[in-house]
Structures are given as C-alpha cells and as structure tokens.
Amino acid sequence: MSDDEYDKLSKEEREAKDKADREREASEQAALPYTWRQELNEVDIVVPVPKGTRGKELAVTIQKKKLSVGIKGKDMIMDGELCKEIKVEDSTWTLEDQQSIVIHLEKVNKQQWWENVLIHHPKIDTRKIQPENSKLSELDGETRGLVEKMMFDNQQKQMGKPTSDEMKKMEALKKFQAAHPELDFSNAKIS
C-alpha cells in the first residue's frame, strides 16, 4: 500500500492496518533464527546456539556487506548480504554463556534505519520506528534535529496536517502576500 493510499484510510482503518502489520512483522521476525535490535548508529544481533558451544567451533564472518554465522561442519545459521554497509573495523562478535553469539554491527550510514539484517529476510516498516527518548538525547545536535523533524513530520502526516516543510512554504507565501498587497492571489494554485 502506498503512502497516499494509507493517508486516505479512516483513523479506524489505519489502526486496524497498523495492528495487522505489527502482528505480521512480529511473527515473521520471531521465525528468524536470531533476534535483532537497532539504533541509528548500530545493529545488535543475538544468535542462539546449543548450550555448551565453544568459540573455536564457530564460523563467523563479518564483511562490509556480508554476514555469515554458523557452527563448523553444520549448515550456516545466517548467511547472506547485509541490507546496508557496515564498518567492519568497528563491528564485533562474542560468545556469551556458551549459548548465544552476540554480534555488534556499526552502521556506515548512521542516519538510516534498517528494514532487515540480511536482504533475503522479512522487512520491518521503518516508518513506524520510535527511537527511545533517552537515546535521542545522546545524538549530536544535527542528527537529533533531523530525527525530531522526521518524527514531527510523520505525526503531522498521520493526523492529515501539513509537514514542517509545507508549513514553511505556507508562511513564506503569507509573508510575500503581506508584502505585496497589490497582487491578486485569489485564483492562484499553489503546490
């Protein structure tokens, strides 16, 4: 469904669609052989392995656009192309309690949410991501401003109100009209 089609739905229809989408996403994500979470600058993945697994038994490869995780001599648990590029030198993996591999990936683009980890896995709707407020305060001023603007514009769109850019355009037009009362704008079509 396109943004325009979504915007035309009633409030109740939007809520029902959002709920159905969240349930579908949750079931798709639960079916993956790992769990993951992200912030604007990083992605953390937890891959369960049989209890008692030792580090030397693992085969983990982290590359700029590829990730593979598995136990030597067995089928790979994760293997494929990452949806976005990472900084290999700042990305790590560890084995915790001999039962889970914790992978930390540092994003190259720190201003973009990931839809999925590997491109062939189910996607999430990144427009619905709400960053934790405590984490928002940790961002540098420019990034924080950008995230807050995106959140504001998203809320405005959901309520059918103008975005911040549209509000600026309307304000500029009002100022221009006030400065030029001799011009007739009654038949003007503004886009």
Automatic annotation (TrEMBL):
Official protein name in the record: Nuclear movement protein nudC
GO BP terms: namely: protein folding
Q: Which UniProt keywords apply?
A: Cytoplasm
Query: Ranges of Basic and acidic residues compositional bias?
Result: 7-27
Entry's localization field: Cytoplasm
Q: What organism does the UniProt record list as the source? A: Boletus reticuloceps
Q: Which Pfam families match?
A: CS
* Domain of life, source organism: Eukaryota
**A Gene Ontology term for the protein's cellular component:** cytoplasm
What InterPro entries does the record point to? CS_dom, HSP20-like_chaperone, NudC_fam
Region described as Disordered: 1-31
Q: Where is the CS domain?
A: 29-118
What does this gene product do? Answer: Required for nuclear movement. May interact between microtubules and nuclei and/or may be involved in the generation of force used to move nuclei during interphase.
* A GO molecular-function annotation: unfolded protein binding
Is-annotated flag, keyword Cytoplasm?
A: yes
Gene3D superfamilies tied to this protein: 2.60.40.790
